[in-house]
Design brief:
Largest sheet: 7 strands, parallel
Strand content: 5-15%
CATH architecture: 3-Layer(aba) Sandwich
Number of helices: 8
Number of domains: 1
Shape: globular
Distance between the termini: 28 Å
CATH topology: Rossmann fold
Strand order of the largest sheet: 3-2-1-4-5-6-7
Helix content: 40-55%
């Protein structure tokens, strides 16, 4: 028996990285999953990794509310219903100061992360209300969400993650009497393409030693966040809303910091990109 038996989930931006790790964990726990990307090739490659019949791929640009609405129609047609929606799709800006930043890139980060999360919340909650489902919406936090989490040189990304937290809590309050759970998940620091140092900007090159040390200390595999996502999607969160779980909580952060010298000495730092 899995924790998500008979559940159907949609996870946006889930053909790689954290989203794909969550999809794998959901399938292991008995769920059927719809994964998304803006690339057919990425969808086909990702779907091939899962047991037959457990996952369905769908093209979706989260900036388009029509795409998100179509995504729900495809998921319901394929698996009969939708119980959980994870707003995972997101991008970051290049490592630059505000005066060197690209206004178009800044706007694209805002559109993808904030507008995409808004679209997902709006469509998912409308679907759950229409179908009388006590569904789960999980939004993704990140650097910039917590008060002590500063994000110099990625100001667009940090600003969107702070905004997503406020949006999550506002929507949770709006629908607290419906039985729909609207929650926030911080995946911690994960080595994905979003935080890779390939083709670094001059500013990142200047900060690279510090950046790599921070990754060595605090980066974790995406499976940590995936297990927390399962907890949020499971019966554990029934009748709860406005919950915030973090894969980089204060206690875990202290543990990673304290064990870093030993992991470095024993050459046990995981530097894989997920």
């Amino acid at each position: 028996m899995g924790k998500l038996d008979h559940k159907v989930a949609i996870i946006t931006g889930s053909t790689r990285g954290i989203g794909k790790a969550i999809a794998h964990e959901f399938v292991r726990e008995g769920a059927k999953v719809v994964i998304t990307s803006s690339s057919n090739a990425n969808i086909e490659a990702a779907v091939a990794e899962f047991p037959s019949g457990t996952v369905h791929g769908c093209l979706c640009n989260v900036i388009s509310i029509a795409d998100v609405e179509r995504l729900f129609a495809v998921a319901a047609a394929r698996f009969g219903t939708v119980d959980c929606f994870i707003n995972n799709a997101g991008i970051s800006d290049s490592f630059r100061s505000i005066t060197d930043s690209d206004p178009d890139e800044w706007g694209k980060v805002i559109d993808t992360n904030i507008k995409g999360t808004y679209n997902g919340c709006r469509v998912a909650i409308s679907y759950f209300i229409r179908k009388n489902i006590k569904g789960k919406v999980i939004n993704m936090a990140g650097s910039g969400t917590d008060r002590d989490s500063n994000t110099p040189w990625i100001s667009a990304y940090g600003s969107t993650k702070a905004a997503i937290a406020r949006l999550t809590y506002a929507v949770a309050a709006e629908y607290r009497h419906t039985g729909i759970s609207v929650m926030l998940l911080h995946p911690g620091l994960v080595r994905t393409g979003m935080v890779s140092a390939e083709n670094p900007t001059p500013e990142l090159s200047h900060q690279l030693a510090t950046f790599n040390t921070i990754l060595d200390i605090f980066a974790q595999p995406p499976s940590v966040a995936a297990r927390l996502a399962v907890k949020l999607a499971s019966n554990w969160s029934d009748s709860k809303t406005g919950i915030y779980l973090s894969a980089l909580s204060g206690l875990r952060k202290k543990g990673l910091l304290l064990t870093y010298p030993f992991r470095k000495l024993l050459n046990r730092i995981d530097r894989r990109t997920y």
